[in-house]
Amino acid sequence: MRIILYDEHELVCLGLKHYFSLRRGFELAAGSSLLDLTEDSAAQNADVLVFGTQSEIQAEGQGDLEVARHFCQRTAHCRLLVFGQNAADAGPALKSGARGFVLKSEPLWLLEEGVREVGGGGMFVSPSLVAQYYREKTPRGTRKENPYSLTRRETEILKSIALGNSNKEVAAAFGISARTAEAHRSHIIRKLGIRSAAELAIFALKYGLIEA
């Protein structure tokens, strides 16, 4: 998957480049300058443009986000994912045409999951934002009993993942290897028919596995 990484802060951009250069299945398609995108032939073949910002999302037609949005519109198969500082910016970002929004407070593995989901044609929003939306829209006392036959171990691991812990953090908490934690995660997701961490957080809230 070919990705473009941009952030208002050069050090953040360098950190993102280093992270994704170590992950399987990613190729950096261009540099960090939005103004150079139209002149960069490699950028024209990008699948995802990650737009990092700490600023408030401005009105449509203004700012660097608009440059990124227009680039993705001109490049038919390139999708925009916003990596933002403020939860309040998720709505405006998605309305502007972004296919994903990940908070900068989330662990990088969630950003990676978001990039993979958006690059594959889906949409992705930070699980914490999805969970917040679910809490606001779901009356208290309406949670259902868990219809899935999860073991006690699977339930505890599911809770940990739903709270945003990485495979390494899950492994440390349960005294297992990171590879075993990943295997548990994959098994639980297949068992529940869940595709993303956001859906997993919703499931955990719905069935009372984590507190709203």
> What share of the residues lie within helices?
40-55%
Number of domains: 2
Determine the CATH superfamily of the largest domain: Response regulator
Q: Rg to the nearest angstrom?
A: 18 Å
Rough shape?
globular
**Which percent band covers the strand fraction?**
5-15%
Mean pLDDT: 79
Alpha carbon gap, first and last residue = 36 Å
Q: Based on helices, strands and strand pairing, what is the structural class?
A: alpha/beta
For the biggest sheet, the summary is: 6 strands, parallel
Order of helices and strands: EHEEHEHEHEHHHHH
Number of strands: 6
Q: Which residues sit in consecutive blocks of at least 5 with pLDDT less than 50?
A: none
Instruction: Enumerate how many helices there are, as a single number.
Output: 9
For the largest sheet, list the strands in their spatial order: 2-1-3-4-5-6
By CATH, the topology of the largest domain is Rossmann fold
CATH architecture of the largest domain: 3-Layer(aba) Sandwich
